[in-house]
């Protein structure tokens, strides 16, 4: 799986400057590598059967150039809101490759999909939502199930707890089966959480869905709508194509342990895995406050903070974006820096006590692996301008 090293990052930046796409005076710029995006997507295609639909989660990265490129390569998009359905359409995504998953769809939104986006996949979040589905629904209808499995997703991303707001608990098996007999349901959907490395919970959940779909289909007449697709969600933060916790190991485990690929079309909804490593931000160091006390770090101010890195600053998630200073050797130094963001509140720091080469105004501070859940979460607090975005 490709990664950008510091030398490659510097050369991408210098190339953009040489080509006059940037002039170097920008407060901050975000770069996103087309090549790495293609690498991540092609790994999914290599590891899963060719008829799988990889609908990339828009919420992780909603830049329109990136969405267009994903679509131009034949992949789909997963929308968490009607606004994201419209982003998918604007990116040229064919209706059949859009998956609409919002947990709070309005009647008007469902009607809009029925009238204007026939063929899209729509997953209801509850059995009550099925009552909002129009007669002769033109979209493909799925039910999100909460499989109630164990996951190593961090607490705020664990959506399969007993009190989760997502999906119909699998313990309501009879109600789910009855709903599938009453409505034209053709799919089952799960997404168990984000930040997952140990995917045994996902495998267990998929196995449950295959058994449930098999049971539903066995109760249907031949001319009735069968379950023919299973959406297995996203959330696994694969680190490699092969080996332990890899995309291939996951796909092969599903094949061996669940039989899903033999009987069902599969949809995936990866976000962070697809985008995380493909992007980096470069911010000018505006100025440095030298500390006069030996045990207190200096403070370097940059132009990105809690506006771009909401999860890092506002949550207790252990997020560490690798970083370096462009053009300065990566020597460890006795100098320690706190890296402060530009927002007017005390907690707006990205790093504390970071050993760095001596910093000065105008140095370029690079923050890596920022492709997922950063710019798509941009916060307007303090009303600062969004950084420029180069898809190259
Ligand atoms: C329904 C659904 N699908 C897919 C995703 C993407 O998850 P990840 O970016 O962790 O792969 C999310 C993230 O919250 C989600 O809620």
The biggest sheet amounts to: 8 strands, parallel, barrel
List the secondary-structure elements in sequence, H or E.
HEHEHEHEHEEEHEHEHHEHEEEHEEEEE
What is the class of the largest domain in the CATH system? Answer: Alpha Beta
Report the principal-axis shape: elongated
CATH-assigned homologous superfamily of the largest domain = Alanine racemase
CATH topology of the largest domain: TIM Barrel
What is the residue-averaged pLDDT? 97
Measured on Cα atoms, how large is the radius of gyration? 23 Å
Q: Kindly name the structural category.
A: alpha/beta
Bound molecules: pyridoxal-5'-phosphate
**Termini Cα gap:** 18 Å
CATH architecture of the largest domain: Alpha-Beta Barrel
Total domains, how many? 2
Strand order of the largest sheet: 2-3-4-5-6-8-9-10
